[in-house]
Design goal:
Distance between the termini: 70 Å
Helix content: over 70%
Shape: elongated
Structural class: mainly alpha
Largest sheet: none
Strand content: under 5%
Number of strands: 0
Radius of gyration: 21 Å
């Protein structure tokens, strides 16, 4: 019985590591797409945009690690119930997966967004800022 739980926990640990690599890959692809879009608009590549990417990684992984902790508590509770009460319950890093899927959707949308749409949104942001200053 304990051997089976150990195998499941090891499998889940590998699954969580795999799930946690996905946002990093998508952020890299978004960064690469951003560089291509900037070159298409003949813009200079600036370090402040690169700093925003680092801040994005930190924000995303803060949220993901919070979900990993929630999953750890959930899974520990299920393992406890299984060992001591012989209940078989759902043990899967669901919260982590949901967080990563949400982040993946955001990044994929950003990657697929055409350069002209991004430029139009930036102009609208500048116009909104000008209104607020006025």
């Amino acid at each position: 019985m304990t051997h089976n739980i150990t195998e499941q926990l090891i499998t889940m640990a590998f699954l969580v590591v795999g799930i946690m690599v996905v946002p990093l890959l998508l952020i890299f692809l978004d960064f690469w797409a951003g560089i291509r879009k900037a070159r298409a608009r003949k813009e200079r590549i600036r370090s402040d945009k690169m700093k925003r990417t680092v801040q994005k990684v930190a924000r995303y992984y803060n949220a993901i690690l919070a979900m990993v902790l929630m999953d750890a508590v959930q899974i520990a509770g299920f393992v406890f119930l299984h060992i001591f009460n012989h209940w078989t319950l759902f043990t899967f890093p669901l919260f982590t997966l949901i967080a990563v899927l949400f982040i993946a959707a955001i990044e994929i949308k950003s990657i697929c967004e055409p350069a002209s749409e991004k430029e139009r949104r930036e102009v609208a942001d500048v116009a909104e800022l000008a209104k607020q200053i006025a």
